[in-house]
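ZP: hey, is the adenosine-5'-diphosphate complex queued? I don't see it on the tracker
AM: it wasn't, my bad. submitting now with these inputs:
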Amino acid sequence: LEERLRKSDTLNVVGELAAGIAHEIRNPMTALKGFIQLLQNSIKEDYSMYFNVITSELQRIESIITEFLVLAKPQAVQYKQNDVRKIMQDTIDLLGAQAMMHNVQIIAKYSEQLPFIYCEPNQLKQVFINMLKNAIEVMPKGGTITVAIKPLDEQHIQISITDQGCGIPEDKIKKLGEPFYTTKERGTGLGLMVSYKIIEEHQGKIEVKSQVGVGTTFYITLPTEREKEEYDELGI
Ligand code: ADP
Ligand code: MG
């Protein structure tokens, strides 16, 4: 319990900081984008290479801020009974074009008898997007992602996302979910951190099985009902 408390304290502080910083950066970013556009339109010579770099770097800052904002204090978070199958299928449809561009096929296997679960659909979608994107990104030559959703026991369901990517060495698995841990040249190292936080808030857990050179499976276990925890009452 102590360990969990400590972790959730840290996450709260990180969340508040993230919200503050993100909002502070958003405004100057908007100004920057506007003026760069004006500049681009009024400069005659071809500086398109420079503008491309500026635009892509601005986009990068924006994606970091967007991921940070998910950490921020809940904006209109609405826990409700939801069909995870639908949330997952919406996400797969959303990423369809990106998957196809990378020669990646996404196969989904859903159990017939799936209970609805008490969750925040936009946040779960965020987790699925992060994990599916990671899976696509580790298969530069294409491959198959297998998604499965099944009941685990009376009170839990399990979602698994399996790729045929590079795999993760044993000693790196514990680094997953740490802020800024990335092995990608253009990575943010925030996707999994946000995902772990969201699943933790859903009283679920994430487990990883991986074999270097073979692939990786992320297992997400979610409760069907939300339990009131001891420290909910403490107001932590
Ligand atoms: P990013 O994708 O920006 O690097 P993430 O938090 O999404 O940040 O992921 C952190 C790191 O975890 C990745 O850089 C990668 O090293 C590792 N990782 C995540 N998903 C996978 C996967 N499916 N296969 C192999 N490595 C992964
Ligand atoms: Mg990622």
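AM: back. The CA atoms of residues 63 and 188 lie 8 Å apart.
ZP: great, adding it to the tracker
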